[in-house]
Design goal:
single chain, about 240 residues, alpha/beta, 8 helices, about 20% strand, globular, binds S-adenosylmethionine
Length: about 240
């Protein structure tokens, strides 16, 4: 079906309206060119980013390492000998940093849908964290014990449609909350990425009932324009 720009007024699907509006904003520019322009802009911003440069110099696989480093410096989460579960670990910078601190007497178990290159003292499981078989594998890798700390930087593939991204994120968070009894030690801590939005108040409420203290953190290394920030929940009140 061919659509005229003015057809957007008749459409009931809001996503179609959005894409038509985007086309109308520059009807001369083919979509492929707009996409190429966007990825060029992303590549340029990435190359100029201070934290990307710092990550390259320090051997971290992602600039995300500096978000965890900053949070850890301020809140002293990671200690030598700890058992840590890293959810949404690829490409692996949080696992790199964590395993450097936990050392040979500690253990990091990392999970992601995507593969990662091996990291010393890190046991990696490739799969969907929401899958209960993967959660069973995590317990085995943790030595049939729960973790002292869960760090979760998982985020679904973003569609750019706020309501869809929020719903996908909520599913991930729900899986984490449901698994806490099995995967986190009493008095353990959880650091978890969230997006600003309507559900935030509910999320905080759930965490407040499960942990003794919950705080919001927006690290300097998190891009200002990003809606992400982190909730740090301390002292898990296991049932
Ligand atoms: C922002 S990246 C994490 C970066 C990582 N913290 C680092 O330092 O390298 C988010 C990751 O979440 C993963 N992810 C999303 N949904 C997932 C799921 N259901 N199970 C496991 N990993 C998932 C993605 O594959 C992606 O690699």
């Amino acid at each position: 079906m061919l659509l005229n720009y003015n057809d957007s007024f008749k459409l009931s699907n809001p996503n179609l309206k959005l894409s038509l509006r985007a086309l109308r904003s520059n009807p001369q520019m083919p979509r492929q060119t707009q996409k190429r322009k966007k990825s060029k802009h992303w590549a340029q911003r990435h190359l100029n980013d201070t934290y990307v440069k710092k990550a390259n110099q320090s051997g971290y696989r992602a600039r995300a390492a500096f978000k965890l480093e900053e949070i850890n410096t301020r809140h002293k989460l990671i200690k030598p000998g700890m058992r840590i579960l890293d959810l949404g670990a690829a490409p692996g910078s949080w696992s790199q940093l964590s395993s450097q601190i936990t050392g040979t007497h500690g253990l990091v178990v990392a999970v992601d849908l995507l593969p990662i290159q091996p990291i010393k003292n890190v046991q990696f499981i490739q799969g969907d964290f929401c899958n209960t078989d993967i959660q069973a594998q995590i317990i085995v890798q943790l030595g049939n014990k729960a973790a002292d700390l869960i760090i979760c930087d998982m985020s679904p593939d973003l569609t750019g449609i706020r309501i869809t991204d929020q719903a996908n994120m909520e599913n991930l968070l729900q899986s984490v909350f449901n698994s806490l009894e099995n995967l986190l030690n009493p008095n353990g801590d959880l650091l978890i990425k969230v997006f600003e939005g309507q559900l935030l108040a509910d999320l905080r409420k759930s965490l407040n009932s499960l942990f003794k203290k919950v705080i919001n953190i927006k690290p300097d290394a998190s891009r200002k324009q990003s809606r992400e920030f982190y909730l740090l929940a301390r002292d898990f009140k296991a049932a």
